[in-house]
Amino acid sequence: MPYALFSHDAKLSNTYPTEADVWKVASKSGLVVDVATEEEKANPHPVLDNHYEIRPCDPEPNEDPARNMAEAEGDAWTEPKKPKKPEAKGGAA
Predict the structure, then answer these.
(1) CA angle 82–88–91, rounded 5-degree value
(2) Nearest residue to 69 via CA among 60, 57, 81, 77
(3) For 18-68, how does the pLDDT look when each residue is reduced to its tens digit (9 = 90+)?
(4) Whole-structure pTM value
(5) CA 27 – CA 30 distance, rounded (Å)
(6) Can you tell me the distance from the alpha carbon of 83 to that of 63, in angstroms, rounded to the nearest whole number?
(7) Which residues does 68 contact at the CB level (< 8 Å), separation at least 6?
(8) Are 57 and 4 in contact (CB under 8 A)?
(9) Could you write out the three-class secondary structure of the chain?
């Protein structure tokens, strides 16, 4: 099941294949902070900022979670490029 980032009931992110993928994208976006309690000062653990949550959800129609992840990683799938039309040389103005 795919996952996304939520604030209350509002979906804030694209849908991604796994919960770990959402954590990765949230971290890259600066939405993850390291928190340590008095007892755990030496071992802080990541927490989503602003009470965000990662929840399972269905992708939107025509949304591809794997493609979203590829784009988030900068390895976006590319559509086949259309050949450029040759430019007209000279000619009437």
Answers:
(1) 165
(2) 77
(3) 999 999 999 988 899 888 777 767 777 888 988 899 999 999 999 999 999
(4) 0.71
(5) 5
(6) 27
(7) 14, 15, 16
(8) yes
(9) CCEEEEECCEECCCCECCHHHHHHHHHHCCCEEEECCCCCCCCCEEEEHHHCEEEECCCCCCCCHHHHHHHHCCCCCCCCCCCCCCCCCCCCC
**Among the listed residues 31, 1, 33, the one whose alpha carbon sits nearest the alpha carbon of residue 13:** 31
Partners of 57 in the β-ladder: none
Closest by Cα among 42, 21, 41, 45 to 33: 45
Structure tokens at 2: 């795919």
